[in-house]
Structures are given as structure tokens and as C-alpha cells.
Amino acid sequence: MAEADPGAIGQIAPIEEISIADAPALDEQLRNATKPFVVRSLVSDWPLVEAGKKSGREAREYLLRKRRNAQFTVSIGEPGTGGRLFYDDAMQMNFRTVRAKLPEIFAQIDAAEDQADPPPIYLASIDMHDFFDGLHEANHVDLGKRDCLASIWIGTRTRIAAHNDFPQNLACVAVGRRRFTLFPPDQFRNLYLGPIDNTPAGRAVSMADLHNPDFAAHPRFREALKYAQVAELDAGDALYIPSMWYHHVEGLDRFNILVNYWWRETPRWLGQPQDALNHAMLSIRDLPEGEKAHWRELFDYYVFGKPEEVTAHIPEKGRGVLGPLTTETASRIRSFLLRQLSR
């Protein structure tokens, strides 16, 4: 592997930091934001943050008191990986996923806490409402009328390759420290994304190693680094990640907890763009070039073009799904697709 270029990595620009006075100010900032930003000490008054400042074990005890008697999904890696949850040489995951009760998982973390390079142990995107009683009520951000999914991420030192998410994201560090390295959405070609059907956590990830980039194999990654932004967050700090921004995430301490909120600015009944992309690969990508070119024009016309040009010649009452989508017409499309895909 080619040697890393410390100069290229070291010049990453910091993410903008802003001050927030109260919930209305945060609401306004989120409504108008087009770029990521950091808010220091946004959640420093959380009981979970206070417990974590005493020790990792104190934070784990706090969570155990609020846990439900449920099986949690946990990823367990191998020692010597530096906490990187990624692919192995055979393009399989370098970690295994099991289900266990939270006391059992935390016992493993307790046993490995003083090891020099312990196996990474990681609970990802655990729904706070479904798996805990009163945890969200005691530790949450007032996000107004946003319909949010509140998740907690718990683990040892970990490195998660750059990936993106469709929803908006407010990530709050509750215990430990985290480093986020962000890339704008338009850098996806320079990130060398891996497969979309074999992923560590459901989203395609960058195959370039931020800690040790191989610029011979991934030369365009140098260009991505020019547009990267980085922030190191302490317990109590928060980071806003706009929709579709790629983020490389590192848990820097022996024990780390993150709470994040996902929300969409569009109605929940709209479809997922990734589903459309997957279906397009199934049905269009391998067509003859001439047919594929025609479908590109149809997508430009019906999806990316101006709706008024598509429907101007059709009486308003007869436009169906070509008109502005509603819960009814969206349901009609979904039912039609399910019938077609099940044939």
C-alpha cells in the first residue's frame, strides 16, 4: 500500500462553529442551514453526559438502570483492527453481529476496557424509545415540531468509513469524544464508494482509508480531501450534518456514546430515493445504449424537469400521479410497484 500523505490529511478545514441561545434559535438555524455546523455544549446538562464525565462505567450503569429487558444487536470486531469496522480482504465484514442483553454486552466492554487494542464493540442506531424507559425524556434536544427518530450509538473505539444518509442529522456526543470528517454530496465520485448491496450498515461506504489513504489506488481521494471539513467533539457538543453529506466517524475514547436525531423535510409517505436507484439498476442500467439514453430523457422529463411542462396539456382532474403527490396518489404508486415487483 502506498504511504499516507500527512500533509494532505492535515490541511482539512474545520467545521464552522456557532452559538445557540435557545430552542427557537436552534430551530431557525436548522431551517436555514445548507452546510454543517457545530454547537459546543448544546447538551452538556444531560444526566447521561454528567454520568459519563465521571467514568465510562458510570455511564453504563446509568443506561442499565433505564434499559428494557430486550435483546440488543451488537457488532463485535477483531483485535488489532484499530477499531475499524469495514471489509476484510474477501470483501466480507471484518466483524460479526450478534444479539445479547445489554448487561452481557457491557460486561464484555468492562473486561476489555484496559486492553491496549481491544476488539471493537459497537451498538449502532438503537431506538431510544423502543429499548429504554425514560432515557429520551431525560436526555433530548427540543427540535420543535420535527418528527424525529432518536437513536443512541454505544461503543468502544471505532472507525466508521465515510457514508451518507438521506435524512437531516443532529448528532450529540454524550460520552467520550468523536471526530467527524465530512465531505459534500458532490464528492461521491472522489470517495470511491463500495458496493450498495453488501455494506457495513446499509449505506455504501468510501473504500478510501482516511487514516492511511492509498493515493495510487484512489487518486481522486486527494480532490475529496480539498473539500473535507473536520470537527472533534467533546461530551455535550453537537454537530448538524445536512442530508446527503458524507461523514467519516471515529469514537476516540475507550467508551463513547452518541445520541442522534434524524428527520426529513419531506413527508414520510414519500418513497426512498435509494429504492428508486436500486430499481433503476435492476431495470435500466444494462439495457442497450439507445434504450438507456431514451430512459435518461424520460427521467429528465418526468422526474427532474418542470412539472408544469409535463402536465400543461392534461386536464387538472386527469393528471393522476403526474400532479403534486398526496398520501392517496403516493399510496397508489406504492401499491402498483408492489404488484409489479411481486410478479
From TrEMBL:
InterPro entries in alphabetical order: Cupin_8, JmjC_dom, RmlC-like_jellyroll
SMART domains named among the record's database cross-references: JmjC
Residues in JmjC domain copies: 115-278
Membrane-crossing segments per the record: none
SUPFAM superfamilies: Clavaminate synthase-like
Protein name: Cupin-like domain-containing protein
